[in-house]
User: What shape does this take?
Amino acid sequence: MKKQQEKEKITALYERLSHDDERAGESVSIENQKRLLEDYAEKMGFTNIRHFTDDGVRGTTFKRPGLDAMLDEIRAGNVATVIIKDQSRIGRDVVEVGLLKRTFDEYNVRFIAASDNLDTANGFDIMSIFRDVINEWYVADTSRKIKTVFKSRMEKGLRCSGSICYGYLASKEDKGEWIIDEEAAPVVKRIFQSVLAGESIAAIGRALRAEQIPIPSEHWKRIGAPVRTAGYADPYAWSATTISYILSRPEYMGRKVLGKTVCENYKTKSTRKTTAEEQYIFEGAIPAIIDEETWHNVQRLRETKRRAPKTQNAPNRLTGLLYCAECGAKLTHRHHLVQGKWWDDAFICGNYRQLTRDCTMHYIHTQKLEAAILSTIQRVSWYVRNNEAEFIERVREASDLRQEEAVKDSKTQLAKAKRRHKELDGLVKKLYEANATGKLPDKHFTRLLAEYDEEQAALEASMTEWQEQIENWNADKLKTEKFIELVKRYTDFSELTTPMLNEFIEKVVVHEATGGRGNSRRQRLDIYLNFIGAFEVPAHIVTPMEEEAERRRQEEQAAKEAQSRELEKARYEKRKQEKRDFTARKKAGLLTPEEQAEEEKRSAKKREQNQAWREKQRASQPPKPPKPHSLTELARMKREGLPLTPEEAQRLAEYRQRKNEQIRQSQQRRLAREAAEKAEKGKKIA
Assistant: This one.
């Protein structure tokens, strides 16, 4: 009965072929394996055969449809024998193959590898373990060889992948070289320029879709190029992932980057992204679509997450450019609801009132900040256009680099050091030859070799320093030239546009305000420009824009003052007329009882104010000196024997002397008059 059941069970014939095995030719093809296993089963008398096949599956993977189907039959107890061509067909992993063999033993399945003469019915075969190890070693060795080939190609700048960025096409002469796709390249430029203009990724995607611009896969399909993703519902639906992928590719600025990913495990084929040190980078190996400055500016802008206020469709364009001077955090945009209205368009420190971090507010209004940035760009740009040589000199001085004469000296010293270093190499070689032939004793050889080594080490250190000075000077000169090119690219600086802001400004450091509120409030801003940093134009220079701004400010101030004077005059005339009307009504007795009571109250208050003012004036004046005694009082005091001051005694004496003189003169006049009268009478009698 048991033998009858065994005959009814399946004889499983398993075949597997991977893409790597196809290189071996027809001998390992699926058809060849099936034919070989069928002949073996017929020869050995196995019946009820069934094929289980995995075509195009590598041996290190054990999630295979054919293998899984066969294991399901084994666990169901429907399989008596499993026959394969050789042990490598069941797999190339020692551990996994061992687990499969254990499964065969648990379910009493006979396992046969026809070409390896392995039959578990004959007992344990130690060689099967070694064959499994060799099969796995084959995969590991193949993986190592492929990695070596790929590495060798990448070191030479040759590509190992056929994928091509959107905006490029493979050259017909050399598929490893890229040429610009004239139809897709403008779309790439537009995407980068849109980011510089302050548009979000979603807004860019909506604009491209509205204009019916095909997505990369649809574009490649239309021009007959290989398509990576054939399944898509809408040929114009640009996703944020696609646009972000385009913005992150360094190839668009002409940089060939090879080795971006590396396979960590040849069994699982798991990969990881490589670091910059592991990659192979070749500058200028691809025709550039985007200039380097634009690419780096876009990457800097994408580092900051921007959220649009509820009342606006786009986030504030200054977000991500402002930093706190005290804690270094980015300033956040504040645009909130105040009494039912959206108000307070300003920036504050991101760490202000945080639970785990603490910093002051650093409040600054957006409009004033943009005005300060525009003024800085205008001032520096005008200075560059009109004083280019002086600007270059000041940038070098500000960066504390040597001048051109010093760099020339460094180049001269570097050339001399290289020649001397080469001479020392020749001397050391001759030194070894002389010592080897016995012409130079070991004692002298050791001493001279040490001296030469010491001199070479000193030369190498100096050469490194001079080379760094030259490279720094060249880099600084290049940055200055790039900024000059940027200034010359713009012709209108009257308005601060978003592309101008993103191209000119690297960052703005905001300090805490001082001096209170209003016109007395002062706040320091450190504005760092791209390529040149925080550059200060000499204070004595006044640009035409500043003169025009000052003229407009003075005109506006004069207009405000004139308007204020007119308003004050109108108010004065109005008050004067109202007072005249009130006085006339008061004299005519036409005031109402309320007005009469108010007038009496006002008059009483006015009298109190006047009295208080008089008392205050008297209190503020110095006390008057005492009134001097009169001459009558002085005479009385003299008669009564009261003491007199020397001044008072002198006054009294002078008065009495003057009085006596007056009496004497009066008597003389009287006597003279009497004598004259007597003489007149005598004449009349005679």
Summary: The radius of gyration is 53 Å. The chain is about 55% helix and 10% strand. The mean pLDDT is 83. Residues 442-489 form the longest helix (48 residues).
